[in-house]
Amino acid sequence: MQQLLIYQSLWAMERRRPDGHEWTLEQKLAMIRDAGFDGAGVRFFDRDYAREVTAFLREHGMSWQAQCYPRSVDELKPIIEHVQEFGADHINLQADVRPYTLDECIPYIEGWRRLADDAGIALHIETHRDRMTTDLFFTLQLLDRFPDLRLTADLSHYVVAREFAWPISDENHALMHRIIDNAWGFHGRVASREQIQLQLAFPQHQKWLQLFMQWWEYGFRSWCRRAPSDGVLTFLCELGPPEYAMTGADGHELSDRWQEAGSMKDSVRALWQACADAGTRKAAAQEKAQKAAAA
């Protein structure tokens, strides 16, 4: 049976408050566990950090994705070694290079994929600003060259970078659907055409929240058609600290990101279940129709 795992980003647990108060790593991990997340997004470039975090998650029956930001092909090698030592659902790679042409990208993509394939580790390339995938059109050209490229779709970056007008045009929906059809994981954040991260409960932001829920629903259905019957899809709640999060004149955030992460988790889990129920009903109707035709 296909499965959705919802993770919480440890980066998103940074508070960066004016008073300087931060949760300890132990507190963060316990909060993620107690809130009902299935795991966490873990930076894997620090071996000691990765060992400590994954030991806790493993002890509590949770899982994780390994996040990295290589600037060369070789910089992926220690990440792979850490994954081989500690495990991971997959490597989430932010390509920290900015080639000007598509041809310049090819050695990076081919090199990273070769290393991951040789190690037998799933590799996803994240869509993100100020990375190789910063521009929507450039990333679509990457998909022209590598049609089987597995993406982690963080859709918020393209909404801001392209300044999508409201309502979203059919053309822009189609472009985003093409990105989503190559997504093998999602990072969760809601943006508008001018803000990278909106407060989820504010009334003026509900149209953008519903837009992202619609894209994620499309993504779940698309993934279910492409993935094996025992496949696992991950969704990382990634509501970042300031300056991703908006702050007032006092430096404090305008909303509670931790509460919002829990709300996102519950909404996305319900969305997945609705998609699964709809798929079950469709399969049952098809089976019934086939039996009727055979009779």
UniProtKB/TrEMBL annotation:
Pfam families: AP_endonuc_2
Domain Xylose isomerase-like TIM barrel: 31-161
Coiled coil: none
Single GO term (MF): isomerase activity
Signal sequence extent: none
Keyword Isomerase carried by entry: yes
Keyword terms of this UniProt record: Isomerase
Name of the protein described by the UniProt record: Xylose isomerase
Organism for this UniProt entry: Herbaspirillum hiltneri N3
Classification lineage: Bacteria, Pseudomonadati, Pseudomonadota, Betaproteobacteria, Burkholderiales
